[in-house]
Amino acid sequence: MDYYIRYIDLPYRVKGVTVMDGEGFFNVYINARLSYDCQQKTIKHELTHIARGDFFRIDVLEKIETM
C-alpha cells in the first residue's frame, strides 16, 4: 500500500479524503484546519479504507456516492 499524506485547507465539514492517482498511489488529503488529534484520527480512518481495499469494492463505493 503506497500512499502520500498531504495537509491542505478543506471546508470545515471535510476532515479528509483519499483518492488514487493514475499510477496507483493513494493520496490522503487531511484538513490542515483540524487539531493535531483530529488529524491523527482522520489519517487512521483514511488508512483503514486503503487497508480494507474499500476503493475496489463496488458496494462501498456506491454507499459513499449516496452520502
Kindly name the structural category.
alpha+beta
Mean pLDDT, to the nearest integer, reads: 87
> How are the strands of the largest sheet arranged?
1-3-2
Count of helix runs? 2
Report the principal-axis shape: globular
| Helical residues, percent | 25-40%
Number of strands: 3
- Which spans have pLDDT < 50 for at least 5 consecutive residues? none
Strand-residue proportion? 25-35%
Task: Write up this protein.
- Helix content is about 35%, strand content about 25%.
- It has about 70 residues and is α+β, with helices and mostly antiparallel strands.
- The longest helix is centred in the middle third of the chain and has 17 residues, at about 35-50.
- The radius of gyration is 12 Å and the shape is globular.
- The termini are far apart.
- The mean pLDDT is about 85.
Please summarize what this structure is.
Helices cover 37% and strands 25% of the residues.
